[in-house]
Known about the structure:
The model has no long low-confidence stretch (mean pLDDT 88). This protein has helices at residues 19-32, 37-57, 102-112; strands at 4-13, 64-72, 76-83, 116-122, 127-135. The protein has three helices and five strands. The radius of gyration is 14 Å and the shape is globular.
Amino acid sequence: MTSTAMHHDFQVISQAEHVPLARRETVKVLADWGIPEEIVGIACLIVSELVTNVVQHAAVLSPTAAVTLAVEEQAALLLAVADAHPLKPKPLPAAHGLGGRGLLLVDALVREVHGRSEVFPETATGGKRIVVHLPLAPVAA
Length: 141
């Protein structure tokens, strides 16, 4: 990971009632850092969706999710959510009755702001880390 000026890590219990805690922690930290409100809103939605995916799909092997927030030197906001489940997520081609909208939404938000996302193995836990980079400055269309 790149050297950062601002960095904050926290853990969230992989239970549905803890997803709002991740959202509140994200809002508080990013607002304290002076991140623009529009980016804070997008970041909160992304963190909420990724933590919800841990709750729904990885909690059996990952009792907690690790969340990282950081501002990179390249004027980008880094968001990462890691769990200990080895299955790599893939967005479903379409939403269905059991869900499937989370990663579609995350991918759409990231593309809309000209960001990027990647999935990396977490060798320490055998799981994975989803990393999202959001530009902090507007990107010319």
